[in-house]
Design a protein that fits this description.
A six-stranded mixed sheet has the order 6-7-8-3-9-10, with helices on both faces. A four-stranded antiparallel sheet has the order 2-1-4-5, with helices on one face. Helix content is about 35%, strand content about 25%. Helix 6 runs antiparallel to helix 7. With about 260 residues, the protein is α/β, with parallel strands linked by helices. The radius of gyration is 18 Å and the shape is globular. The structure holds adenosine-5'-triphosphate. Adenosine-5'-triphosphate binds next to strand 1, strand 2 and helix 3.
Length: about 260
């Protein structure tokens, strides 16, 4: 997305220029993505001609009004649904042309998800939820205790890991969900309204922690949000209206002062 709208004097522009020189590909490249839902004779165009690139290590917010196509884009980026037209390249591989099995494999290897409703399994502890994510990802690596310690400390949940989700506050549950998403060291983290179910204080804390942990682990994050102030925590903000990219702007890379009360 930066090439069409960003300046070469920005951090993104400089990385894009360096990438071009080295012949490297962006970690995510969405090219003319379209999605039309069909039910009977009714057709609902949810995305039209959506094109943008994301550099490795970038934090990008996706904002737009209800019904603008954010969730549809999220599901396509996560390989959870296919676009009707266009292509999605993850690390240069065309996601949209893979079989379901291959897509699942690529998704497990490279993508971590954080959802608005946390989606933790209620019958097992926070720690077991995180371990399960590691097992499902089939990375072939042993469980990384050192990374869990680091994440727990960063996310402030080190004393809470033996508890079940219903014994944790909403903010703590979301921080466990972030640890669960990051434990496999995914190259890409997709977060869908990660603070949608949290009060302001917890929401600010969770956003800041997501930002810090992604910086620390050099992870690419795409975060959907309704909140234009929360969106500022990103490096760039992708505005969507009526299924199209309306504009892309620089974020502040941190929360605005007005939110840090
Ligand atoms: N399964 C579906 N079948 C038909 N239409 C759908 C389906 N899912 C979404 N849509 C329509 O596609 C458009 C985009 O929906 P989408 O959920 O992607 O928007 P959104 O920006 O995520 O909205 P919100 O912020 O309210 O979650 C809307 O008009 C919606 O009604």
């Amino acid at each position: 997305m930066g090439r069409s709208t960003g300046s070469r004097t920005t951090a993104f522009g400089r990385r894009a220029a360096a990438r071009d020189t080295l012949g490297l590909v962006p970690i995510i490249s969405a090219q003319h993505l379209g999605k039309t839902y069909r039910s009977g004779k009714l057709e609902v165009p949810a995305l039209r001609d959506v094109t943008f690139d994301v550099e490795a290590g970038e934090f990008v917010s996706i904002v737009g009004p209800s019904g603008s196509g954010k969730s549809t884009l999220f599901y396509i980026l996560g390989g959870l649904t296919s676009p009707t037209s266009g292509s999605l390249l993850i690390k240069g591989q065309d996601f949209s042309r893979l079989s379901d099995g291959e897509r699942t494999k690529l998704r497990r290897a490279h993508i971590g998800f954080v959802f608005q409703r946390f989606n933790l399994l209620p019958t097992i502890s926070a720690r077991a939820n995180i371990e399960l994510a590691h097992d499902i990802a089939e990375t072939g690596r042993p469980f990384d205790e050192a990374l869990l310690s680091k994440l727990s400390e960063m996310l402030g949940i080190d004393g809470r890991l033996q508890h079940r989700p219903n014994e944790l506050s909403g903010g703590e549950q979301q921080r466990v969900a972030i640890a669960r998403a990051l434990i496999t060291r995914p190259a890409i983290v997709l977060a869908d309204e990660p603070t949608g179910n949290l009060d302001t204080r917890n929401s600010d804390a969770v956003l800041s922690m997501l930002r810090e942990s992604s910086r620390e682990l050099n992870q690419t994050v795409l975060m959907i949000t309704h909140n234009p102030e929360a969106a500022q925590i990103a490096d760039r903000i992708l505005h969507i209206r009526d299924g199209r990219v309306l504009r892309i702007e620089q974020g502040m890379g941190r929360l605005p002062e007005t939110m840090l009360l």
